[in-house]
Design goal:
Strand content: 15-25%
CATH architecture of the largest domain: 3-Layer(aba) Sandwich
CATH class of the largest domain: Alpha Beta
Distance between the termini: 16 Å
Largest sheet: 6 strands, mixed
Strand order of the largest sheet: 2-1-3-12-4-13
Radius of gyration: 19 Å
Number of helices: 10
Shape: elongated
């Protein structure tokens, strides 16, 4: 989503204000563009998570609330509000908005398959062997709202994509895979869980994985703009890191498809930053 210089400057000004404790409840914004669910349907789970996360941090009941947004626009708008002190966001969202939202990665979320996410590029069997084979093609997927993420961290190891390759966003990965299997000039970027489900599709034999990324963080817990004093932010981070040890947290984490929170992999995160920045450079971005 493009933002005008004036809008970005205003967001930066708001987030650069000195840290202060919000007068009302502090808010954790969960943003996962392209993934299932919506704000209203997710609210019971968000309420339960906020309650137990506040308890783990030693905060009073009602001190924290959590809100889920399935779109980048919704998450961005809510993160601009001064009570949004933490964000739980996907890596593409983080890399795209780390600077303008002043996000500071504290923890990464681990799923049953692990904390490291691996992305794959899938296309019609036998049609793609090199990046040049994607000349004039479309690459789509849930990560497509951040084209630099696809060109850099996901496919940087595969090679530079032709300028004519379009990177697009879709939440309907199944439909895109069906089109790719039918022979359209379309390739699909899949995360680990989506790739694991690939073999169950009736047209799976018409598809193949042609590239894969190195492991990188999948979901990051971030402080937003230094809005909380360091002591309180550290309390929350320590509480989340121990949350999986609380028996009553198991069902909530499972509903969120998480197992635990752990220290962010700084080396992998820095590598993703460098690759993302390289893909964002003018020489790497199609016009």
């Amino acid at each position: 989503m493009l933002r005008s210089p004036a809008t970005l400057a205003l967001i930066g000004l708001l987030l650069a204000q000195p840290a202060s404790v919000p007068a009302g409840p502090r808010t954790l914004v969960v943003c996962a563009p392209g993934y299932p669910g919506n704000t209203a349907a997710a609210q019971p789970t968000m309420d339960a998570f906020a309650k137990i996360a506040a308890e783990a941090a030693g905060w009073r009941s009602g001190t924290l609330r959590a809100l889920y947004f399935e779109s980048a626009g919704g998450g961005l708008a809510r993160l601009a509000e001064p009570d949004a002190v933490f964000a739980l966001v996907s890596l593409p969202f983080f890399l795209q908005h780390e600077a303008d939202l002043h996000l500071s990665a504290k923890l990464q979320a681990a799923q049953e398959s692990g904390a490291g996410e691996i992305w794959r590029l899938v296309g019609h069997r036998g049609r793609i062997s090199t990046p040049a084979g994607l000349d004039g093609w479309e690459i789509t997927g849930t990560a497509g709202y951040a084209p630099e993420f696809v060109r850099g961290p996901v496919l940087g190891g595969f090679g530079a994509l032709p300028a004519s390759t379009r990177v697009t966003f879709t939440a309907n990965v199944l439909s895109s895979l069906r089109r790719a299997a039918a022979g359209e000039p379309l390739a699909v970027v899949l995360d680990r869980s989506q790739a694991e489900a690939l073999e169950s599709l009736p047209f799976a034999s018409d598809l193949e994985s042609v590239a894969r990324s190195v492991p990188m963080p999948g979901t990051l817990l971030c402080a937003v703009g230094g809005r909380l004093p360091t002591k309180q932010a550290d309390e929350f981070v320590r509480g989340l890191a121990r949350l999986h040890l609380r028996p009553e947290a198991a069902d909530i984490l499972k509903t969120m498809r998480l197992v635990r929170f752990e220290a962010a992999d700084r080396a992998a995160l820095d590598a993703a930053r460098r690759s993302f920045a390289s893909a964002r450079a003018p020489s790497k971005v199609s016009r």
